[in-house]
Every structure is written in C-alpha cells, then in structure tokens.
Amino acid sequence: MADQDRTPGSAERQFTIASALSGATLTTADTSIDYRPIAVMPDVKVVKIGGQSIMDRGRSAVFPLVEEIVAARKQNHHLLLCCGGGTRARHIYAIGSDLEMPTGVLAALGGYVPRQNARMLQMLLARHGGVFILDDDFEKLPLYFNVGCIPVMTGMPPFGYWEKPTKGGRIPENRTDAGVFLSAEFLGVKRAIFVKDEAGLYDDDPKKNPQATFIPRISARELLARDLPDVVVERIVLEYLTRARSCHEVQIVNGLEPGMLTRALAGEDVGSIIYKD
Amino acid sequence: MGKLVADDGRTHIVSPLMQESLVNRSVIASTDSEREFEIMPTVTLVGLGGQSIFDRGREALLPLADEIASLRGQHRMVIGVGGGTRVRHTMSIALDLGLPTGGVAQLVGAMEEANAVLLNALLAKHGSITMQREHFWDLPLYLDNNMIPIAISTPPYHFWEPPPEHGPLPAHGSDFGLFMLAEVLGMQRIIFVKDEDGLYTKDPKQHDDATPIPKTTLAALLADMPEELILDRQLFTAWDRGRHVREVQIINGLKRGALARALAGQDEGTIITKEST
Question: How far does B94 lie from chain A, in Å, by closest CA?
Fold first, then answer.
C-alpha cells in the first residue's frame, strides 16, 4: 500500500462532483436551491387502525371496520392502512423497561407487534384485495392501487435501534401515530385519519376521567401550549404537525361508531381535527 | 405477566403498562430508571468521513486501510462509513426536483453502501465484513473472531424522516446515525476520522483565523454551538439525552498514526467529553 507520509494539506487530490451542495457541511440549514416540493401521491387516504383501541377488541370492533374499508375501496378510495400495536407492545415495553434496555431496543421490539396486527388485518382483507406490505414495498404503492388492492402495513416508523433516547422515560417517542403521520407527510397527503375508540380528542383521558371535555378542533400549537397530562395522539405528532410541509391535519375518529370512518373518508369533519396553524 | 384482562371490551395482557395511555407523562416516567443496560460497552465505533476520507481516493484510503488492518485484534471496533460528495450531489438533484424530505433521506444510504463495499474490498483479506443494517446481534461473532465489521452511517429513517426544523434537508444525517448505533449498543467512545485536526471555532477550510479546540465538553458545545460544525447538530442534542457515550473524538485521518493513537486513548484532534449526570 502507499507508503508516503500523510500530512494535512498533502492530500489535496479530492474527487468532488460539482453540485449546489458540494461545498456544504450539510449541518447548515441554508441552501441556495430553489426548493419547490412536489406531492408524491396526494390522493391516498392514509388511515391508522388503532392497536389497543381497535385490534385488541377483536371481531366486534374489527369486522364492522373491515366492511367500511371494503365499501370505501369499491368507491375507488386509495386506502393505505397502517396498524398500531396495543397491549402486546405495552407488555414488551414493560419488560424491556424492567430490564433497563435502551429506548432504541424498545423501539425495535415494539416494531414486531404492529406488524402482526397488519398481518391479521391483511388476512381479513385478502379476498377483497388486502396485501401486507413492508417498508421496502412503499415505492410499489402505485401498483397496488392501480390493481385495486388495499395495502396494509405497520404504523411503526423504521427508526428501530436508531430511535432517540426519551427524556425522563424509555418508551419510544416515535410510535405508530408518528409513523402514520410521517407516511402521510411523505406522500403529500393533507389529512391523516386515525381510527381509535374515542370520539376524538379530550382534555384528559376520557377512560380515566369522565369529566374530560371533548375538543372538536384545535391547532397543534395551541394543543402543545395547553400541555395536557394526556392527549389522544403521540405528542411528537403535534411537534411534527407544526413544521410539516404537506400533512396539515390529523383527524381522530371513533372506529366503534358505525359510519364514522366512511364519513371521514368522504372528507367530513367528524371526530376531532388537530391542524397546523 | 401472563394473565389476560378483557373487562373493557379490549383484551389486555397484565403488565405495568396495561390499559395505559403511553402518551401520559406519569406513565412515561414510570419506565425511567437511573441506570441502563450496556449491551456492548467495550466496543469503539470508528466513523470514516465520506468527503474527508473516501473522496480523496487512494492517497487517503490506502494508508488508513493499512492502519486499520494493523490495529485488528488490538481493539474491538466497528467501522462506520460516510457517503461524501455523491450524497451532496444526490441531495442537490433531489431538492431541485422537489422531492419531499423523506424522499431525499431514502436515497442517500446507497452512496454509503458503495463506500462500505470499497472499504471492504480493501480490507477483506484482513477479515473485514460489511454489516447488514440492524444485524447487531452478529457483532459478537465478528469481534470475537477479530474481524472488522463495516456499517453504513445514515440512520434508516428513510421515507419517514421527520419534517426538519429548518429547510428541506433531512436532519438525521450520518454522524447522528453513527452516534445512535454506538449509544443503543452501550458503547462509550466514538472516533470520527475526518480531514481536519478536530473541531475549530469556524470552518478552517473557509476561514484562516479559525482556531482549533483540542478539548471541550458537550455542555460547553451545547451552550455555545459554533456556526459551522464538522459534525451533525442532531448528534449533540441526541448525545445530551444519551446515557452511554462518554467521549467523542474527532481526528485527522490524513495524519499517519492518528487513529492508532486515538484508539490507544491518547490526546489527538479534539476530545469532547460528557460529564456524568
């Protein structure tokens, strides 16, 4: 191998491709590029199916939703279904925390459960065109929609072991709500729909506090400022919402109430809407 | 922890997080603890710069590969590689096309994979091996056999890259990705191999009056962050929350022996330390 001494400045030979960013450190935010973002697939309906709220209820909650999903598909909605985790994810987070595992390990472990839920939902939807897809299949969404399929995937973003440590706790900040929101943001979809088991957003957990007040519409910034002890979506989604370029609304609907998902897919402002200011 | 409860229509596995909202602050705090399990504490992560090392070709790479080969068996290390000028070119074209931030993030890893293959070709006869993404659990096999695992740096955020605080560039770059790899595995040291003698008050390539910073602390950097940084900003905010990485060293890979000295624990380049909290 080369035996000449290496001294700073002696290796001036650098294979550089000239580009607008060739001299940039990539840590500075400013670029000279005139950035005019495109929308990748703005007409897709990105729908999250809750884990604890829907899947863990089994047949009584899931079957009626499957019917609404199939009907929506027949009306030519392009549905991307993303599943939450639920109680098995909570169980593995509890054991992982008990073993004092890093957040990244918990995020990787928590990823297995929503994938199982997505597979279950796919089996129910198979005869109606349900296909289970992995992150790597995301680029094939146009194909699935063009042949009339209903892609079903995990809601969990692929951060896994690379999930940042959580301040004051271990539970990963980016879970399935965040992943679903980020899917919508990448696709250029204006509104992401979250199907849960409450009418929408409350100022506290309505399951624990019957006095909790329903909030039909609120801005992400205002909701963050209210600093509520509990909110219906992952807090990090609210932060993302304040700086999102494409997905400017999150809609939360009650999947246990027949017709709510159908109305949300039709563009009705049912449930609660959290919007970007 | 194996009992099931279904008194509210959902089926729960009994665990401390059962029926809980994982958004609730007190629930999150219940998963915190003083300590965190260290998975591979004695391994050092060595990150080789893309633009600073790889893009210089044989002049920089061959002596460094020689040095890495000579250190084999003396240190348990994982080599991470950056992408360099091809990443910048990718990003500048992608931004000009108006691709969303997640689309840009999806593209860049491939340029690092190419560098991993290049380095592996140079080091294969010395027992190197390119590591698949999250195949961390193969590491004991490699390290116990004195092999040299080579990983790519960019975190797998892909299409799900969160909306950045400023501008359209993905905020989670390769330095951040390497940091997370070390942190989640409980490593204590990271050595970044670049083409400057560590951190400076300004970018030394553009300012003659830039002065080197041989030793500093994370707290000092966070309080007074230089305008132009040789490392991703996200790395420092994630490190602030981390528990394992105690020291980040930035050295000049164009200097013969610098890596050997750094791995031996000697002062070289810049050493950033994090005080125990």
Answer: 10
